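Sequence only, no structure available. Ideas?
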Amino acid sequence: MDKERPKVGVGVYILKGDKVLMGLRKGSHGSMTWCPPGGHLEYGETPEQCAIREVQEEAGIKIKNLKHGAWTNDVFEKEGKHYITVCMIADYDSGEPKIMEPEKLVRWEWFKWDELPQPLFLPVENGVKSGFNPFEKKALNLF
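Reply:
I predicted one. Tokens follow.
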């Protein structure tokens, strides 16, 4: 267990009509759970820059109209990992989601927010439990 200081993750909730893009993870913590595209915030990077980079690296699509959403405090007890996850909300711009990192992802799918697949990745689960909904105005610019 590497009980280091918390790391910062960025999750990008991409909205297309009334659906959000979710991927089924594999090969790392949270394997076989569903989450939006995202990853680690790099040194000197803004959450917006991280969101654009990670979405391109993971799904190969373009996003626009980025906004800050909520954040979650996520302790993965079994793996000994602790993350603060910044939620970004973006509109879909162009491209077809594809698996760019097959060692990390099984598939991408679009879901209605009230029909999210299970099980959810811990940061998504924590956000949902706190009432976060990327489709509601109150979810925007929370920090």
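The radius of gyration is 14 Å.
Hope that gets you unstuck.
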